[in-house]
Amino acid sequence: MTTAATRVSPLFLSLVGATALGCVLATLEPQPARIAGVVLIVIGGWATSLCLHEFGHAVTAFRGGDRSVRAKGYLTLDPRRYTDPALSLVLPLLFVVLGGIPLPGGAVWIDQHALRSRRTRSLVSAAGPLTNLVLGLLLALVVSVANLPMALAAGLSYLAFLQVIAFVLNILPIPGLDGYGVIEPWLSRQAQDFGRRARPWAPLVLVGVLFLSPQLGLSFITQGFFGIAYGVFGLVGGDPLHASLGMSMFRFWL
Questions:
Q1: Which residue in 241, 139, 130 sits closest to 178, CA to CA?
Q2: Are 105 and 53 in contact (CB under 8 A)?
Q3: Which coarse location class describes where this protein primarily resides (predicted)?
Q4: What is the average per-residue pLDDT within 83-107?
Q5: Three-state SS string across the chain, please?
Q6: I want to staple 44 with a disulfide (CB 3.0 to 4.6 A). Which of 19, 20, 171, 188 is the partner?
Q7: Max Cα separation, the chain?
Q8: Separation between Cα atoms, residue 197 and residue 215, nearest integer Å
Q9: What is the pLDDT of residue 80?
Q10: Which is nearest to 52 in space by CA: 25, 89, 18?
Q11: What is the pLDDT of residue 103?
Q12: Predicted confidence (pLDDT) per residue in 199-241, tens digit
């Protein structure tokens, strides 16, 4: 029997519905409708993926021994459960709108001591970024195999590219990011202590460097990051031209 702790939340379903509405609008003839459709695809799809990212962490932790994630409501796909809504949804969405770099969203609080092994702790951290990578792969696959209208293909491709960027960003071994969580269980006690101290500010410094490096004459940093992202995007079958068109349509209303 399905319990209240495992039901999909109506708010999550509304995000999926907004994304689906965007897909419909993107197929219509008037240009404003197509642009509105792309905006809904990107915003609704990105918010949905934030929930799935955190759900990936939670369900992996649950299977790895941490039963507290169910009591905390993390298995409901409810955006309100993933820490503060402003930090978990609003701020990451704002970064997508302003710069196209998906800031890491919320977090689920895992009882690390309840997990069975260091390997399980690594898998819990990896589950979120891998969710983004799989979503990017699936979206790119839909675009490549289906004969979609141009605006719909562009919106889905840009959303797929954002998933890939999120994967590349989150998998970096920097304190506060999931990539560091993958290696943290295997580090020395001193390295773990340093990581805990750096965790609150290191991700923001990274995003700041990515945003400001062109102004500081360090554009090779941003170019290198996006070069890796485009490389991974190509590996999952993404179309850079469709993604570029989707980004242009998404930012048209700004």
A1: 130
A2: yes
A3: membrane
A4: 65
A5: CCCHHHCCCHHHHHHHHHHHHHHHHCCCCCHHHHHHHHHHHHHHHHHHHHHHHHHHHHHHHHHCCCCHHHHCCHHHCCHHHCCCHHHHHHHHHHHHHHHCCCCCCCCCCCCHHHCCCHHHHHHHHHHHHHHHHHHHHHHHHHHHHCCCCHHHHHHHHHHHHHHHHHHHHHCCCCCCCHHHHHHHHHCCHHHHHHHHHHCCCHHHHHHHHHHHCCCCCCHHHHHHHHHHHHHHHHHCCCCHHHHHHHHHHHHCCC
A6: 19
A7: 60
A8: 29
A9: 81
A10: 89
A11: 65
A12: 888 887 887 888 778 777 778 888 899 999 999 999 999 999 9
Question: Measuring CA to CA, how many Å separate 247 from each of 153, 161, 202, 208, 214?
Answer: 12, 10, 28, 21, 20
The encoded tokens of residue 90 equal: 């609003």
The residue annotated as part of the active site, out of 54, 66, 178, 239, is: 54
Calpha distance 144→93 (Å, rounded): 26
Residue identified by tokens 């939340």 is: 9
Question: What tokens does 55 get?
Answer: 């759900």
Q: Say which residues have a Cβ less than 8 Å from residue 140's Cβ, sequence separation at least 6.
A: 157, 160, 233, 236, 237, 238, 239
Residue corresponding to tokens 């891998």: 130
For the chain, what is the radius of gyration of the CA atoms?
18
Look over the chain and give the mean of its residue pLDDT values, rounded to a whole number.
89
The answer to whether 49 and 37 are in contact (CB under 8 A) is no
Among this protein's residues, is 54 annotated catalytic?
A: yes
Label residue 22 exposed, middle or buried (CB < 10 Å: 0-12, 13-18, 19+). Answer: buried
* Identity of residue 231: G
Residues 6+ apart with CB under 8 A from 90: none
